[in-house]
Amino acid sequence: MHSSTSTSSLWRPWTPITQQAGSLRIVEARGNRVRDAEGKWYLDAISGVLNASCGHGHPRLIEAASRQFEQLVHYDPMVSSHDPAETLASRLAELLPGELNETCLLNSGSEATEAALRIALQYWRNIGEDRNRVITFEAAYHGTTYLAQQLSGLPFTASEWAPPFPIEHIALPAAPCAMRTEESADALIALFAKALETGPPAAAVMVEPLLGLGGCVVLPAGFLARLRQLCDQHGALLILDEVFCGFGRTGRMFGFDHDGITPDIVTMSKGISGGYLPLAAVTVTSSIKETFIREPIAQGLRYGHTTGGHAVASNVANAVLDVMADEKLVENSAAQGATLLEGLRKLESSPLITDVRGLGLVVAIEADSPESAADIAAAAAQAGVMTRHERGVIRIAPPLTITDDDTAEALQKISGAVDIAAAAHR
Ligand SMILES: Cc1ncc(COP(=O)(O)O)c(C=O)c1O
Predict the structure, then answer these.
(1) Is 3.40.640.10 the CATH number for 61-326?
(2) Residue 5 pLDDT exceeds 70
(3) Which of 53, 150, 217, 244 to mutate to test the pocket of ligand 1 (most atoms within 8 A of CB)?
(4) Rounded to the nearest whole angstrom, what is the distance from the C-alpha of residue 153 to the centroid of ligand 1?
(5) Residues 140, 324: Cα–Cα separation, whole Å
(6) Which pLDDT does position 297 carry in this prediction?
(7) Span 346-380, pLDDT tens digits
(8) Among the CATH numbers 1.20.120.1200, 2.60.120.580, 3.40.630.30, 3.90.1150.10, which is that of 17-44+328-425?
(9) Which CDD domains does this entry report, sorted A to Z (predicted)?
């Protein structure tokens, strides 16, 4: 029997229960498009859950999954390893800069955050230093496990439980639209410097290269390079969360590549498997892993999951790397993203739009209110473009396989949606 609040027994995450009845149902996806139960096709301008970076139904990814399903679905990662996970770990070591050579495979971005924090905190114990303070952005989003959610100061992630270690949240010194100047970089760095200088020594600073769920905030150029220097000065580990930005989303393979830095720990998920199967990774430097080989914690990492590094998911991830290289998807992300940003910037003349910002294939349109954003997103969906909006910001992040024609269509339909919403608000 169905409950009184809904006609469905499915409890969807992060969605008010009162809004779940009669909502959109997606039944099919091909290339850069998805179809709803009524038969209507949409240009998928949100890449599934920001993870369908190679588009939907890609034959090479389906083939990689089918082949691995037949060969070996998965095996106990505590008893043995298998080729797909071994290959993926060594390919990540080749792809990532510097000493980032040691990878632990998991299922979700939140688990990657959880593992990264445990590794960082254990690292300090391993070398005999008592550090446990973690510094993050207030507008950060690092996931939804108990630890990961505590790192975020966003209103929707607020929890009633106390964090198990001190967490310091850095608020943006200016509105997102004012965060692209050299002065804003100075102001932001000054806040991180103060947090690192004040209080007990920090164990780690954990940031996203672009604040994704915090409003698609593009951070000032050079900020990460200066943050790297600060962390070095204070001996704190720098953890980069590449769950949202990694694998080409921002027009470079990783978000931190824009600043040419090497973090100490990197978390990855979403695009790693193109969204075909759940997969995440944490990669750390060889010198961090080295401290886990010594006594008394020689048992290594006391963290892991039954399906972590699932063989089929790992095989798909290896195929994703091939597809990305063969189809030049990072280059396409940079090129299509630049066209999209330039075209959508024209919307800044609309009375409803307060800012348009972006990096690679993450473009955000900030509206003057959450209601305007909802109206624009609804008009875009009506015209056949799927976007997502949160707290007044409409996010456009299509698959990296988007074509010139798709980009032109997105520009035309989203601009039309803004006009329709503006006319209704007059
Ligand atoms: C930057 C970032 N980190 C972590 C996560 C959590 O990933 P997951 O939803 O797979 O747990 C997300 C999810 O959106 C994210 O954007």
Answers:
(1) yes
(2) no
(3) 244
(4) 15
(5) 28
(6) 65
(7) 999 999 999 999 999 999 999 999 999 999 999 99
(8) 3.90.1150.10
(9) OAT_like (cd00610)
